[in-house]
Amino acid sequence: MSRPMSYLAPAAAAMLLSAQALMAQQTDLTIALQLEPPHLDPTSAAAGAIDSVLYSNVFEGLTRFTETGEVVPGLAESWEISDDGLTYTFRLRDGVTFHDGSTMDAEDVKFSLDRARGEDSLNAQKALFEGIAEVTVVDPLTVEVTLSEPDGTFLFNMAWGDAVIVAPESIEGIQQTPVGTGPFTFERWVTGDRIEMGRNADYWGAAPALEAVTFRFISDPTAAFAAMMAQDIDAFAGFPAPENLAMFEADPRFQVLVGSTEGETILAMNHGDAHFSDPKVREALSHAIDRQAIIDGAMFGYGTPVGTHFAPHNPDYVDLTELSSYDPELAKTLLADAGYPEGFTTTLKLPPPSYARRGGEIIAAQLREVGIETQITNLEWAQWLEEVFRGKDFGLTIVSHTEPFDIGIYARPDYYFQYDNAAFQELMSTLTGTTDPAARSELIQQAQTMIAEDHVNAYLFQLAFPTVADARLEGLWQNQPTQATDLTGVRWTE
């Protein structure tokens, strides 16, 4: 026979209340990331940390990526492509509103795409929109995008975080108070600590299980380990201390997910620097690098060696690591042939991630063995973006390019490493206009080989993505087809 709580023993009643309170808290989630965004507009910065917080949570595009990398409908529920491949007619979802209550319609799509491709655009991936000739509003729920030439990757491009749909009414304050259409609304940003979000009660799609989300930013690997072990946080996406993963795997309180990413981690060379404009110097540097030593020393074995700027899990990947195999004696010979028998000194500017800071020390030692001295400078992301990415003021840097299928950056002479090869640019232009899958595969393989043979950068490894989480959580992305922490399907199992 059951009895009311007032008749339970005090200790039992307290335990029951505690259990009920715990269950009530399980619609909240505190998830940590290593990198804090410099601001909150994914359409005007190169920082992947912005997408890590906002992609699919606050902002949405016409299309979107799933965890497998598949492109599926987003704010566009369907589309039609003209026979000549030049016109895409998007049918937008009805009843979608921005977080400020305003209606999302075709005018907002036109505004977003025109803003991204405009002359004064600050979009870091402006090249994604260069093929757009015109955006036309047909009616409030129909928008027509006309291309200057067929583009087999157009729907893929529209799934990038740089292509999310924004509204002109909220654009002025977007960097600090983002207003999107996603399942979570931005609530507060405590700079240097956390970003808070709440469930969007008016979301057009399936309501997320989580009612409140807090993104914490913990840059120090030791602090990340301590916070996770103490369960001050519920999950850490992209856990920055791989040496500690075995401890979490052995603890039943936690689960460890190790997924793949689109992150080609490279030692980038500035082709605007006299040293690295010489292909012999670039080849020498590539042969001075022991990839496996970097993977073992900086990433504790997590990572896949690569010899070009392409993801190994992609079916079109070509293993070209032998073109830049570890051979320090060959590196010395090539440096002498290039006129640097005694080597030279250059800068090595490192952003905050562990792969860069830890990997940088190892690479500096390897380069010193062949006569190249490096002056290491540790930069925060805002500094790195200003000095390296925009200012092009560097000799060498280490960064993981987490954007999906981004080999096209090598066709952009104004990109931060300033590689200018007319033959490669023509190849990528041909690829853009090719829709036949077999022909595209052949061109993609040619592109990989061309930049590997030219030793444009030193290709290190494909970044692994470890996530440590409370064992009761489900729905976290294991893989990273784009830089995102998609929480739309995350829930507590008890």
Defining key terms:
single chain, 494 residues, alpha+beta, seven-stranded mixed sheet, six-stranded mixed sheet, 21 strands, globular, disordered N terminus
Give a quick summary of the entry.
The protein has 494 residues and is an alpha+beta fold. Helices cover 27% and strands 22% of the residues.
Task: Describe the 3D structure.
The protein is α+β, with helices and mostly antiparallel strands and 494 residues long. It is 27% helix and 22% strand. It is built from 13 helices and 21 strands. It has a 7-stranded mixed β-sheet with strand order 8-9-10-1-11-19-12. It is globular, with a radius of gyration of 24 Å. The N terminus is likely disordered.
What portion of residues is helical? 25-40%
Helix/strand/pairing category? alpha+beta
- Strand segment tally: 21
Tally the helices.
13
Arrangement of strands in the largest sheet = 8-9-10-1-11-19-12
| Beta-strand share of residues | 15-25%
What is the CA-CA span between the terminal residues? Answer: 26 Å
Q: Main β-sheet, in a few words?
A: 7 strands, mixed
- Whole-number mean pLDDT: 92
* Unreliable sequence segments: 1-19
Computed over alpha carbons, the radius of gyration is: 24 Å
| Global shape | globular
